[in-house]
């Protein structure tokens, strides 16, 4: 029986992925004089910013001491964008309210750090819907490792088998499935036919469809 729904954040609650992409290109150019490719940016979607910085320090033969500077700059860029431009994606408030009204536990499990998470839930005024806010940045492993989902389920005192994960990235879907959770994928429009999302249990176009999908299962 379904007892909890655990949301990813970037690309699910807020369309911040474009801001992350701009930050990746801008920070690497400004701090390292390196022009990353679109493939470099795409390969890191859904990963922790610290892992992204680590990957690129190795890829571009940068001193590992540069890793913290890169990750801090990207977090700062995105946090500023969220506070100035952040808006919830379609269906976010409706889905969260429906889940709350129907007695399901609701939590967040994001690759972003707590600075960015707090900026999102406060700017969008969503904090009261969540029992628990969790960052993979504070754990040993980030997505696609399932640790952040397993850790979140433990905090909710709910078996992973009774949790539903809602994700937009392939790395996030892998993490949810590895945690033995049911996973709903809401891919970006340009990736909706990507076969890698076939491991998800369902695909939706937006959170507007979530209440109808779950109705009758409670």
From TrEMBL:
Organism in which the protein naturally occurs: Chelonobacter oris
Cofactor: Mg(2+)
Database matches in Gene3D superfamilies: HAD superfamily/HAD-like (3.40.50.1000), Putative phosphatase, domain 2 (1.10.150.240)
Alphabetical list of InterPro entries matching this protein: Beta-PGM-like, HAD-like_sf, HAD-SF_hydro_IA, HAD_sf, PGP-like_dom2
PANTHER family from the UniProt entry: 6-PHOSPHOGLUCONATE PHOSPHATASE, HEXITOL PHOSPHATASE B
Entry similarity comment: Belongs to the HAD-like hydrolase superfamily. CbbY/CbbZ/Gph/YieH family.
GO molecular function annotation: hydrolase activity; magnesium ion binding
NCBIfam families, alphabetized: HAD-SF-IA-v3, PRK10826.1
Top-level taxonomic group: Bacteria
Keyword set, alphabetical order: Carbohydrate metabolism, Hydrolase, Magnesium, Metal-binding
Protein name per the record: 2-deoxyglucose-6-phosphatase
């Amino acid at each position: 029986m379904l007892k909890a729904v655990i949301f990813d954040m970037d690309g699910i609650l807020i369309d911040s992925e474009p801001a992350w992409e701009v930050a990746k290109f801008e920070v690497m150019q400004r701090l390292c004089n390196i022009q990353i490719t679109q493939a470099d940016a795409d390969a890191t979607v859904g990963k922790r910013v610290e892992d992204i910085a680590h990957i690129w320090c190795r890829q571009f033969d940068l001193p590992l001491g540069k890793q913290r500077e890169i990750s801090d700059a990207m977090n700062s860029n995105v946090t500023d964008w969220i506070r100035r431009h952040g808006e919830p994606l379609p269906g976010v408030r409706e889905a969260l309210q429906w889940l709350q009204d129907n007695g399901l536990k609701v939590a967040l499990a994001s690759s972003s750090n707590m600075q960015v998470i707090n900026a999102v839930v406060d700017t969008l005024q969503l904090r009261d819907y969540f029992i628990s806010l969790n960052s993979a940045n504070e754990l040993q492993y980030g997505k696609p490792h399932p640790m952040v989902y397993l850790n979140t389920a433990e905090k909710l005192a709910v078996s992973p088998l009774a949790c539903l994960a809602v994700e937009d990235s392939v790395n996030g879907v892998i993490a949810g499935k590895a945690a033995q959770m049911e996973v709903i994928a809401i891919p970006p429009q340009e990736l909706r036919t990507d076969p890698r999302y076939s491991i998800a249990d369902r695909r939706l176009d937006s959170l507007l469809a979530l209440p109808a999908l779950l109705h009758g299962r409670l």
